[in-house]
Amino acid sequence: MTKLKNDLLLRAAKGEYTERTPVWLMRQAGRILPEYRAVRESLNGFIDLVKNPERAAEVTIQPVDILGVDAAIIFSDILVIPEAMGLPYEMQEKKGPNFPKTIQTAADLQQLKVADAASDLGYVAEAIRITKKELNGRVPLIGFAGAPFTIFTYMVEGSGSKTFSKARKMMYQNPTLSHQLLQMITDSTILYLKEQIKAGADIVQIFDSWAGILPPQQYEEFGLRYISQICDAIQEVPKTVFAKGAFFARKSIANLACDVIGLDWNMDAKESRQLIGEQKTLQGNLDPCVLYAPYDVIRKETKQMIDDFGKHRHIANLGHGVYPDIEPDKVKCFIEAVKEFSQK
Length: 344
Ligand code: CP3
Description:
This protein is of the alpha/beta class. The longest helix is centred in the middle third of the chain and has 25 residues, at 175-199. It has one domain: Alpha-Beta Barrel (TIM Barrel). The chain has 16 helices and nine strands. The two termini are 30 Å apart. The strands form two sheets. It has a seven-stranded parallel sheet, sandwiched between helices. A two-stranded antiparallel sheet has the order 2-3.
């Protein structure tokens, strides 16, 4: 294996000394870069790109070359898991994902299987192998998956939602079916993350994008219980848990067998550190909308974030994915400000 030239992210994840704070952005691969859109337009849509390992590797590396981030994140989507379980999705231009079939009944569940990660998701492993080879040790590569609860909402709702009331209705009316589906997603996700790690992922992140819609007790039962299984099953590399909106669960998340906890911009850095303790690295959490501001404001807010988190056990990021209409130069300003202000 090639030794990493820049392993700041991995050292920060493990709580080791770093000369400065590492920085990357959720959703850095794609959307904001004209170079990404050019590749995307040369193919037949988003899913074609996800399933094309050479081109997926190319757009994975673009932000490392163009933006100067300290990590690459493999270009894919969290929705490859439902597809591998037997529930295909479409990506509708400007509207987002849509599932022609959804899960409503026990009979629907019968149609699904635990994903055979090695064969059904072999294209992701292949993209990871190519990316690792082309990165040649410049920066670590982040693998990822959706958290079971977030994947569950897409499989039941069929798309994004304001209220998620279909998914939430199932949890109240048919908790047994809900748990069966969550368990199948969890088993698939563990196999999938292990394939990503075998292919070369240096760290993995679990995205629980819709964690914040549940009351705390329900999030323990339908959300964290399954993330906990994933954290226990993955021992090979450091793990990051990002539960967007779940400010109420920070103490529970601190008890998971993970190394890094992602924070969104509603979560105060110092309060989070107090709730979580010293044993985890915190990742985040600049408001993504700060990148709409003038350059001097971006620098000032970034410095404030660095000061709030301190220079130890912090990975700088936004509090959620970068928005598609942010100018790449504003992103560069954020990245350069982190590097400048966090220097020891
Ligand atoms: O972080 C990265 O740069 C790696 C690539 C990545 C994508 N999706 C590519 C993508 C990652 C990590 C994801 C995760 C993902 N996908 C999440 C969790 C993170 C989050 O933002 O909360 C979720 C909820 C999804 C589901 C999804 N995929 C939605 C809702 C959409 C449509 C709206 C959007 O985000 O643009 C997608 C499409 C998608 N996934 C795009 C990209 C680059 C845009 C599609 C395009 O290029 O046309």
